[in-house]
Structures are given as structure tokens and as C-alpha cells.
Amino acid sequence: MKLFARLAALLALAASFAAPAVAQEHASSAAAAEQEQQQVDFVMPHVMDSHHVEIPFKGEVELPHWAPVSIFGTPVDLSPTKHVVMLLIASFLVVLTMTLAAIGAKRQTRTQGHTSGFTGMIETMVLFVRNEVVMPNVGAHGEKFAPFVITLFFFILFANLLGLIPYGSTATGNINVTFTLAVITFLVIEGATIAATGWKYIFTIFYWPHDVPVYIKLPLTFIMTPIELMIRLFANMIAGHIVLLSMIGLIFTFGSLAVAVGPVAMGIGISLLEIFVAFLQAFIFALLASVFIGLGRMGAH
């Protein structure tokens, strides 16, 4: 009995020393697993906004942080983010592209009587948006709305395409960006409608189908009105990037180059589709803006 008692005491003593080690090992394993999970999730950090940008050969560069500004008693952080940087780049590219195209068009028209090359391509796109999107939908005297719609088209196009280049990001995949674009377009639409129809414009603000019962009209009004301009662009751009990154992520998930052929092929296909969607969504936003402006202005006739 004494022998068994001594063995039990030794086992208890060993367990008392081993328990903290096991607990520490368990905690370390849990922390390592959590860190590994964070490292594996590279999809959402790429499509979401952040306070740093990725620079080639330098890695992540932290953007400046500013003190919050109080707006009606609510602190608002106006510090620049990755998507803000992308918006500034898109704006710069629009101004640069249009300026170079205008200078080139003036010079080529004087020397050879017509545009060509890069200038001809931009001129073709501008004329297409003006003649095939703005004028047929806005109606009479619609040329004064052409600069706004053309600017919308090229700005959204550049913002979409910036997400397809390495180290870039799609600002139009941010709901705040598409919301702001929708608000700006909304103000132009309603301003044009007030000028043409007076205060009867109120029925053009909301999606209000007249051929369905009122209990269906009401939910459709609150669902479809923001979808028309805001959610359509946001959802299409962020969904494409998530699918593309998920395809590439399969290589790292399986940890083998043997499965790389399929994801790479699908990734190339999705990338080509994303280029098409970038142009398509810019066209649709410009088209809807023109249609809504035209509907509001034609309400007076």
C-alpha cells in the first residue's frame, strides 16, 4: 500500500508540473492557429478599405492619420485610406487622358484632318457616350449634360480598372464610393427635373411601379431605388474580385503546384470577364444617369 501511495504522490507531482506546460502549449497552439488563419485570409483584406497602401518593392506603407473632425458633435475620421488614394489616381488619370486627347485632337485635326491612335480611340469613346447614350435618352438640348455623363463614365472606368493591376484596389467596390456617386447623380437628375417640370418631380425620385398592388409597391420602392445606381456597381465590382482571388487562393489552400493549372486558367478567364465588367458597369451607370435625367425632363411634355 505504501508503494502505491508513493507512486500516486509522484504522479500527482508530475501532473502539477505538466499542467502549466500543457496549458501554455495549448495557448501557443491556439495563438498560432489564429495567426495562421489571419495570414491565410488574403481575400477580404485585398477588397476592403484600409489605412495603408501596397508599394512595389516596399510592401505596405502606412497612410497619415489625422485627428478626427467634429461634425454636429460626432467625431469623423477624415484620414486618407487606400480607396481614397485610388479615387485620386482615377481622377488624375481622367484629367490627364482628356487633356492629352484634346491637345492631340486639335493638333491631328490641323495637320492630317482627322484623329488617329490614342486620340482617335478616346474620341470614339467620347462620341459614343455622347451620341448613343446621352442624346437619345436625355432628349432635346441634352448636350449640356454630356460632360457630366462622360466624366462619370471615364471616372468609373478608371476606378474599376485600377483594381485589376498589381498593387491596385477597386474603389468602386466600396459602398461609400458608389453611394456618393449615386447622390451626385441624384442631385443632377433632380436639378434637371425641377428646371423642366417644377415640383411635380417628386414622383421621379422613387421607384414606384403603377401596375402592382400598394403592398408590393412600398417594399419595392425602398429596395429598388438604391439598387438602380448604388448597389449594382458596388456588388458587381467586389464580387468579381472575390471570385478571382478565391480561384488563385485554391493553389495555396491545396499547397501544391499540381492544381495550379485549373485556378490559373479560371483566373485568366475571370480577369478577362472583369475587364469587360469594368467597361460594362461604367456604361450602365452612365446610361442609367442619362435615362433618369431624360425621364425627369420629359415629364414636363
Overall geometry: globular
- What kind of assembly state do the chains in view correspond to? single chain
Number of domains: 1
As laid out across the biggest beta sheet, the strand order is 1-2
Unreliable stretches (pLDDT < 50, length at least 5) are: 1-28, 30-34
Number of strands: 4
> What value does the average pLDDT take?
76
Structural category: mainly alpha
Pattern of helices and strands: HHEEEEHHHHHH
Task: Tally the helices.
Answer: 8
- Tell me what portion of residues adopts beta-strand conformation: under 5%
Largest sheet data? 2 strands, antiparallel
Cα distance spanning the termini: 108 Å
Radius of gyration: 28 Å
> Helix proportion of residues, in percent?
over 70%
Helix-strand layout with pairing:
Layout: H1 2-40, H2 43-47, E1 52-55, E2 59-62, E3 69-71, E4 74-76, H3 82-112, H4 117-138, H5 146-162, H6 175-197, H7 214-254, H8 261-298
Antiparallel strand pairs: 1-2, 3-4
Helix pairs in contact: 3-4, 3-5, 4-5, 4-8, 5-8, 6-7, 6-8, 7-8
